[in-house]
Amino acid sequence: MTEHEFDHLRAFLKARSGLALGPEKRYLVESRLAPVCQRHGLQGLAELVSCLRRAGDPALESAVIEAMTTNETFFFRDRAPFELFRDVLLPRCLARRDGSRRIRIWCAAASTGQEPYSLAMLLHEAGPLLSGWSVEILATDISAEVVERARSGLYTQFEVQRGLPVRLLLKYFTQVGKNWQLSPAIRSAVKFRPLNLLRNFAELGAFDVIFCRNVLIYFDTPTKTEVLRRLARSLNPGGAVLLGAAETVIGLSDALVPDPEHRGLYVAASSERARGLRVSAAG
After folding, report:
1. CB of 1 closer than 8 Å to CB of 36
2. Residues 160-165: contacts with CB within 8 Å, 24+ apart?
3. Which of these is catalytic: 10, 104, 141, 208?
4. Across the beta sheet with 102-107, what order do the strands follow?
5. Is 54 a catalytic residue?
6. Angle, vertex CA 140, rays to CA 133 and CA 253, nearest 5
7. What is the pLDDT of residues 107-119, one digit of tens each?
8. pTM for this one?
9. Which of the following is catalytic: 16, 26, 32, 230?
10. Which of 33, 144, 176, 195 sits 20 to 30 Å CA-CA off 271?
């Protein structure tokens, strides 16, 4: 693969997925796209780039994006955000949304589904606390392939051993051969759909909690700023966004501000809570 061809792939991925690859990622590109070439009957990356330039093969374009997208995830990943949801955000939602008795949650980079299903299990464990409430969990990902896999709720032994407490495994999963099938009750609590965060997502409506963890790290600064701006506009009054441990809004966006009491938690700068935080800090 020539430098010119590599640059074209980088530009293609940036435009279609927001993925910003540095020059040092050339080996990663070559290793991940070689299988794509084989599956599509292409002689190599030069021919693949030629096909992308012609822009006449949506299946190939999708395969390239999916091959380069990182889908690392596991149940209750990093633990703290889920404890924050259970102990802080859910009580806030119950207090703020008592009139409508409706809570909307969005997992904006859901990969194979472990994050939204972890939330669904937490909500199920809340039991009578949510009696009479409507709770919607929307889970999206740029990869249609992983969205389909997430919908199945079928996980390997290795996947259920990563972060999932044994008690919840035995309560919500059934062993199917060497794999584990999530219960219909938990699967039905999550609605999955493909979605590219670079596109307009206003049609999704407003949410009380947005999980957008470990995806912004792959974007360049202008893309991060734009996505954060639109995430802020997708919050209900009093809503909050959770980012990954290595992500922040500081120096990137004025649309969201950190909650000083809770690491990784952000609220809209225009919200009542953000104004209260600023007043408290000034006092």
Report:
1. no
2. 160/75, 162/74, 162/75, 163/74, 163/75, 163/76, 163/77, 163/79, 163/114, 163/118, 164/74, 164/75, 164/76, 165/76
3. 141
4. 190-194, 134-141, 102-107, 207-212, 235-243, 265-268, 256-258
5. no
6. 95
7. 999 999 999 999 9
8. 0.83
9. 32
10. 195
Each residue of 4-47: pLDDT tens digit? 888 888 888 888 888 788 888 888 888 888 888 888 888 888 88
pLDDT bracket for residue 277 (50, 70, 90): low
Q: Order of strands across the sheet with 154-156? A: 154-156, 179-182, 173-176
Placement of tokens 């669904």 in the chain: 120
Phi, psi torsion values for 249, nearest 5 degrees? -100, -10
Q: Is 86 a catalytic residue?
A: no
Spatial contact of 202 and 233, defined as CB atoms under 8 Å apart: yes
Whether residue 69 is predicted with pLDDT greater than 80 in this model: the reply is: no
CATH class, domain 80-153+182-282, is alpha beta
Query: Considering just the CA atoms, what is the radius of gyration of the chain in Å?
Result: 20
**What distances in angstroms separate CA 154 from CA 1, 91, 166, 172, 255, one per listed residue?**
38, 31, 16, 12, 38
* Segments making up each domain of the chain, as ranges: 3-68, 80-153+182-282
Residues in the chain: 283
Residue 33 CA to residue 52 CA, distance in Å, equals 13
The CATH number fitting domain 3-68, selected from 1.10.155, 3.10.20, 1.10.8, 1.10.3470: 1.10.155
Selection from 266, 256, 247, 208 nearest residue 229 by Cα: 256
Find the farthest-apart pair of alpha carbons in the chain and give their distance in angstroms, rounded. 67
